[in-house]
Amino acid sequence: MKQACILVIEDHKELAATIGEYLEHSDFVVDYAMDGLTGLHLAVTNSYDALVLDIMLPGIDGFAVCDKLRNDAKSDVPILMLTARDQMQDKLEGFSKGTDDYLVKPFDPEELVARLQSLIRRYKGEFDNKIMQVGDLTFDPETMRVERQSKALKVSPTGIQILKVLMKNSPKVISKESLCRELWGELSPESDVLRSHLYLLRKAIDKPFAKQLIHTIPSLGVKIEDSEN
């Protein structure tokens, strides 16, 4: 089996070396960048299975790198963000720019490896090629295009994964625990992560439109349904 290739974008040399050594011992191939511009160039010109991206970088920061990859380069490579910040607003900004997961420094290298493996498995997962539809919302698994009322919607890679699970099971209610297992396997992050992704997904899917499709059922979970109820 081909080894997964990871790009580590981290300006702290000792931390970058420690991450690289641990990833290599875990059978990853590792590439490095010490600033945002170099990391962005490498991410655009090479093929990686995942990125480990620090927020505080010289040149341009991690938020800008993520935003340019998603919006300019149209890349859907999994991105795990490293941050010393543990504020909800910072997490929301990272997710809004398109990051898939995050770890707050300091972190356990074993958790970093486990999260990368989970992101890569999900990224390489098989899709049902059939176009999914709930009400006036459609999702094409082949093109990854999400539309509502024939208008293309901007949805993050993780948001698309959540949408896929909800649409595939519509109108069934999916527990938040089940969603976490679908997204991250047994190593689920804290509840803030899923809540942040759901918030951004609702903002993309429901906020611009008169009718709500994504519904939270207290104590049970989340569903997507075209219903007046």
Brief rundown of the structure:
This protein is α/β, with parallel strands linked by helices and 229 residues long.
What does this structure look like?
This protein is an alpha/beta fold and 229 residues long. It contains eight helices and eleven strands. The protein starts with a strand and ends in a 5-residue tail after the last strand.
Spatial strand order of the main sheet: 2-1-3-4-5
In whole angstroms, the N-to-C terminal distance is 49 Å
- Look at the structure and give the CATH class of the largest domain: Alpha Beta
In total, the number of strands is 11
Number of helices: 8
How much β-strand is present in the residues? 15-25%
Tell me the CATH topology of the largest domain: Rossmann fold
User: What is the fourth-level CATH superfamily of the largest domain?
Assistant: Response regulator
Protein topology:
Blueprint: E1 5-9, H1 13-25, E2 29-33, H2 36-45, E3 50-54, H3 62-71, E4 79-83, H4 88-97, E5 101-104, H5 109-123, E6 132-134, E7 137-140, E8 145-148, E9 151-153, H6 157-169, H7 176-184, H8 191-205, E10 214-217, E11 221-224
Parallel strand pairs: 1-2, 1-3, 3-4, 4-5
Antiparallel strand pairs: 6-7, 7-8, 8-9, 10-11
Helix pairs in contact: 2-3, 4-8, 6-8
